[in-house]
From TrEMBL:
The lineage of its organism: Bacteria, Pseudomonadati, Pseudomonadota, Gammaproteobacteria, Cellvibrionales. This is Carbohydrate ABC transporter membrane protein 2 (CUT1 family). One of its GO terms (biological process) is transmembrane transport. The keyword Transport applies. It holds the Pfam family BPD_transp_1. It comes from Chromatocurvus halotolerans. Belongs to the binding-protein-dependent transport system permease family. MalFG subfamily. It is found in: Cell membrane.
Length: 273
């Protein structure tokens, strides 16, 4: 009994430590400007207000940055999942020379620091006439998200019994038909969990967006908010906290609706065939 109580106390302490910065972010975004600089600071807002959210949405380019981030993260996720799913299927189900070397090369690409790829990518985008566009960021995000997704889906794919697909092929199904009707339903939890983490990687990316895009119309949230609210002489803390809350909403919604698939995907990825 005492051991269980101690364990629960440790778990809840860890949860509170992790959750407190998020709680303080929300509380700060609801404080009027005068309360924000009061000393000592009030733990909860005395007169809560949403004026910072109104200012953020009406008087800044936050919605432009938000739209760009939604587009970039969604487009990157679709491209990465489409390529990674077929790539993982090839690495697991087909036997050909250099298969393992190719898998290790993909892993090595993921291990490279992002800063190493910045200059080659920038020069490539300039040569192709894609610099300072959203499409250039989609390509750049794919470079670091694809190896990660491919290795995750390779693990999920290896956990699906090959006998199921063989039975479908014996019954007359084509290779694509067997993939669609047998493999894909089994792989779906893994695809959803991988897609979620790919979306998060793209949503939070900062370095590529900082270097490849300098137009306000093409900036995502990470660089747009930084450029808008943080300067060498001042930080708009109230607007920054409101922006941080708004930036967290899509991820919270995604986790809330996809949590069961995420848990199921972790279980599937732990089983090896």
């Amino acid at each position: 009994m005492m051991r269980r109580l101690l364990f629960n106390l440790m778990v809840w302490s860890a949860v509170l430590i992790v959750a407190f910065p998020l709680f303080w972010m929300v509380v700060t975004s609801l404080k009027p400007q005068l309360e924000l600089w009061a000393r000592p600071p009030a733990f909860l807002p005395i007169e809560p207000t949403v004026e910072h959210y109104v200012t953020l949405l009406q008087d800044t380019n936050f919605l432009v940055y938000f739209r760009n981030s939604i587009f970039l993260s969604t487009a990157t996720t679709l491209v990465v999942i489409g390529v990674a799913t077929l790539g993982a299927y090839s690495l697991v189900r087909f036997t050909y020379r250099g298969r393992e070397s190719l898998a290790m090369l993909v892993l090595f690409t993921y291990l490279l620091p992002s800063v190493v790829l910045i200059l080659p990518l920038y020069l490539m985008m300039v040569k192709l006439g894609l610099a300072n566009t959203l499409f250039s960021l989609v390509l750049a995000y794919t470079t670091f998200a694809l190896p990660y997704a491919l290795w995750l889906l390779r693990s999920f794919m290896a956990g699906i019994p090959e006998d199921l697909e063989s039975a479908a092929l014996v019954d007359g199904a084509s290779r694509m038909g067997a993939f669609r009707d047998v493999i894909f339903p089994q792989l779906l939890p893994g695809i959803i969990s991988t897609a979620l983490f790919t979306f998060i990687l793209s949503w939070n990316e900062y370095l590529f967006a900082l270097v490849l895009v300098n137009s306000d119309a093409s900036r995502p949230l990470t660089t747009g908010v930084m450029n808008m609210l943080i300067s060498s002489f001042n930080i708009e803390w109230s607007l920054l906290m409101a922006a941080s809350v708004m930036m967290s909403v899509p991820l919270i919604i995604a986790f809330a609706f996809l949590q069961k698939y995420l848990t199921r995907g972790f279980g599937a990825g732990a089983v090896k065939g």
